[in-house]
What does this fold into?
Amino acid sequence: MGNWVVNHGLSALILVVWMGINIFIFVYFYLFYDLGPQFFYTRHLLGPALAWARAPAAVLNFNCLLILLPVCRNLLSFIRGSCACFRRSMRKQLDKNLSFHKLVAYMIGLMTAVHTIAHLLNLEWLNNSRQGDYDNLSTELSEIGDHSNETFLNPIRSPSTTPSYVAFTTIAGITGVIITLSLILIITSSMEVIRRSYYEVFWYTHHLFIIFFAGLVFHGAGRIVRSQTKDSMYEHNVTYCKDRPLDWGKIPECPMPQFAGGAPGTWMWVLGPMVLYVFERILRLYRSLQKVILRKTVIHPSNVLELQMQKKNFSMEVGQYVFLNCPSISQLEWHPFTMTSAPEEDFFSVHIRSMGDWTRDLISKVNEAEKGGFLPKIAVDGPFGTASEDVFDYEVSMLVGCGIGVTPFASILKSIWYKFKESNQKLRTKKIYFYWLCRETHAFEWFADLLHSLEGEMEERGMLNFLSYKLFLTGWDHSHAAHVMVHFDKDTDVVTGLKQKTHYGRPNWEKEFEDIHNAHPTSTVGVFLCGPQALGKTLESCCAKYSDVDPRKARFYFNKENF
Amino acid sequence: MGQIEWAMWANEQALATGLILLTGGIVGVAGQFKDWQFAAYGIAAGVFICLLEYPRGKRKNKGTSIERMGQRYLTICVKAFGPLTRNYFVRAGLHAVLSIPGGFMLPTVLGCVCVAIASLIYLLAAIRGEQWEPIMPQVESKQRPGESMKEPPSNPPPRLPAELRRKRQEDAAYVNPIPISVNSV
It folds into this structure.
């Protein structure tokens, strides 16, 4: 229990606060519309559906405000940077921005459903009231507005229309249909299957959010949710007059009641975040227009492309990522790549593997250029910060990279190499444990070379026990095993040529954590993972298990990269 | 956007639509709306579309196809209709036709538009030559000892020529009074 609090406490707190605000808003507005005396006549026409429509609307206002914020990555980067005085765990919350974005999106979907259903009922009942299907009071209320000097209560003025017609001829109706449709398309194209495999469909469809927000702001402009005005409530005593609808206007106690529509309120909620988001996009555009020099391109084995680039006023930290855009392949697509160079170098580099349409096209364009042609122009947005910036703050760090996820750690290890050479005082880290898991090393020869050179450096300075790394080949078979058995006595590993031997199969995390716990009983250990979710869960639970609640003893903090 | 299988998105869209039609239909019927018959249609159409679209098809280009939970049984039902469910032109047409009655009543009109959109995406998928392939479970082939061991041996095992095999008269423990031949009992 204590471990759970240490590792998940802040996330849980944020969720509880968010949910609490949602519930509060819902209940507050529900009661406002269900009990407010100015809505007495409105409620007579609509029943509880009035409150059931307005309460989700308020929750929607709140969540539409929130949904734009987690995706302003430049803003988040800025907050992360200025959070230097905050506790480490605060900055970790900003990693979970995408999860929060999705959670808010689910809430928006749910509330939209409730809101729409309630309004379907409302429109039907308003229409029926107008056609005189219900009691005298309803008919009388609906007829208000037919004569001059009267302000209507029932927004449906024609006695011979259908709810569909009304929906498509009122501002609220038509904007409602359009934005709900946009929302549905956004949600179906954001399902995990589509997003992971057909990223372009997800990305382009998601831009329907522009229509969503535009429609949302104008959704209430028609002011069709009516309530009795204050003056009218003073003159027209509802308790007495509700039983005498046919006498209204004829007796002095009951003049015709006057109504007014509620002013649209959504713009007040969403205007701020919309402006922030516009700034965010302008900033991205500005940064992307700056010139990028492609200093060098290298094609590594297994179709891995390394791009070394330079850009004016570009400064990075370890493990950050950039978004790349290649206008000659696609004007609008930006794809994230972790940088593999260290801040100490005078260029920045990324290693790109052929994973989908865009990466394949890029690699083939570079190949063509090598045969005699022009290199494609590249635009860069970033750098954006992720958890690896924190690596040097922990006394002991555990770095776990799976397959392609090893890339941010290339940057970190290179930076260590440079910091050592300069004897940089900023380096708080005393010990690094690096775990590299992959099926086979073919695609990562470039990384093995990096480890090679690091090994050499460390040996020269006699600091071999600063970095201890373990390589795990998870895709071994009998021929591998036979090969290893034969060459067992050799000094260096047969597969990678490194001094530390390759392990086969998956690591026993419990044992690893226990060993580190015993080796560093009073340290804070940062655990960094770039890899699959399943492994993340395992590591997270090990962190929780092996952390002591006592802050003086060993504690493990789990940080996950997410792309 | 070369490698996109539009059918995957059409499938998600159609499944969502089934639910929307179903919900709209339930609202229309439970609220006893005028024209509630269209709402009843919405319920029926919604359920039908959900059942048809629940089993995900197999992906042509990428490696693994992810099944939805428990879709095995529906896959068999959908597969049974053969070309009617395999061909996406048929599905596009079917969805287009299903969308029309939804447009007559407000609760189902959203479902109507969504089905129409799903129909358009399926049309696009069909034009690009995609088809619905069922994801069948991998049958675990038992470890057979090998094809040649299925039947009893047809040839006798190799032996030395008959003369050398016959026991020598001198080594016999006794002498048969009646000579033995192949046909003797």
